[in-house]
Every structure is written in C-alpha cells, then in structure tokens.
Specification:
193 residues; alpha+beta; elongated; 2 domains; 3-stranded antiparallel β-sheet
Length: 193
C-alpha cells in the first residue's frame, strides 16, 4: 500500500539513489484543516489546525490522501519547496488566499497549478482554460473582480472612505483643541474664545 512506504523502500540498495516507485503517479501537496480535539474541548466550540496533506493518484488504482510525512519531502524536494513557497504572500499582485470569493478546494487546485495571485488567474490563456475545465469560471470571476476593483465606482468608494477618515480626524483634533483651551481658561481664569 502506498501509505506504508518505508525509507528503505525509497532508497536503493545502498547506492544512495532514490527509487522512483511512484513514477507515473500524479500527486499534489495541499493544506487543509483538521479539528484539534484538545483546543476544541478548551474553547467549547470547533477549533481547527492547518495541516499539510499529499494526494497520490496512481495511473491504475485508487487515489490515496494522507498527512505529509518527512519521506514525502525527501522524495519530492522540488515539489515540496514549490508548495512551501505558495504558502507565503507573493511580492506582486493580489494574493489568492486573501480573495473572499474563492473556496478552499478551488484555492488548493489553483495552488497545485502554481497560481498564486488573482492577476495570474485572470490572465490565463483561453486554451489553458479549455483544457482544464474548472479554470474558465474562475478566470472570468477573477477578471471581473479586477475590473470592478479598477472601476470609477470603486475609486469613488475608496475616496469616500478616505474623506470620512479625514473628517473623523478633523473632529477629534477640534475636540482636543477646545479641551486644551478650556483647561487654559480654567487655570488662568480668562476667557480665550
């Protein structure tokens, strides 16, 4: 069974070469959540921990999903490094993990394809979307999301929020000014306003 692979199975007979017994298998690393029983009992409601999984799909057979083990990181160091890199926020673009419209399973699938930003999804080629069926609706959603974020209405909303913030700060400064004048008047016994 694939889930019961030992390090001696992975390594060749003393020659230090990795046996590629999983050659031909499709696999992906992904993050999901498991209930943490100890935290759940303390809090009184469900608490979850992020956990790394590997999904292995052999050419002829059932797929296996299990927790990532050290041997997986050893056998597939490049893929593991790429998966780990996907967990950090990209330097440019809007991070998919912060996109409120995406579901966890869609996020895992997109990250498995190496996509990390909304801009990358929106810019997908029509041919790629045709070959990978679930990408087309996400590509359209991402493109519309970016388009609406750049629209005049979105800009006006942002300006309105900034203006409201400036007004709040102005009112706070006016209050502080009047309070300071009142203290001075009280301590000196003169009227300044």
């Amino acid at each position: 069974m694939i889930g019961d692979i030992r390090m001696s199975d992975i390594m060749g007979a003393g020659n230090g070469q990795i046996k590629k017994h999983l050659d031909g298998c499709n696999f992906r690393f992904y993050e999901s959540y498991q209930v943490n029983k100890e935290k759940t009992e303390k809090a009184g409601y469900a608490q979850h921990d992020a956990v790394d999984f590997i999904e292995i799909i052999p050419p002829m057979g059932d797929r296996t999903v299990r927790l990532v083990e050290d041997k997986d990181k050893f056998v597939y160091p490049e893929q593991w490094a790429k998966y780990e890199a996907n967990k950090s926020e990209p330097k440019e673009g809007s991070w998919l993990r912060a996109w409120p419209l995406i579901k966890l399973n869609e996020l895992a699938d997109l990250e498995a394809y190496g996509l990390r930003t909304i801009e990358e999804v929106a810019g997908l080629d029509a041919d790629v979307c045709q070959r990978v069926g679930f990408l087309k609706p996400l590509q359209k959603l991402a493109a519309n999301w970016l388009k609406s974020a750049k629209s005049k209405q979105a800009q006006m909303t942002n300006l309105r929020e900034e203006l409201d913030e400036v007004k709040r700060e102005h009112e706070m400064l006016k209050d502080q000014y009047h309070n300071a004048l009142r203290r001075i008047e009280a301590s000196e016994g003169t009227r300044l306003l």
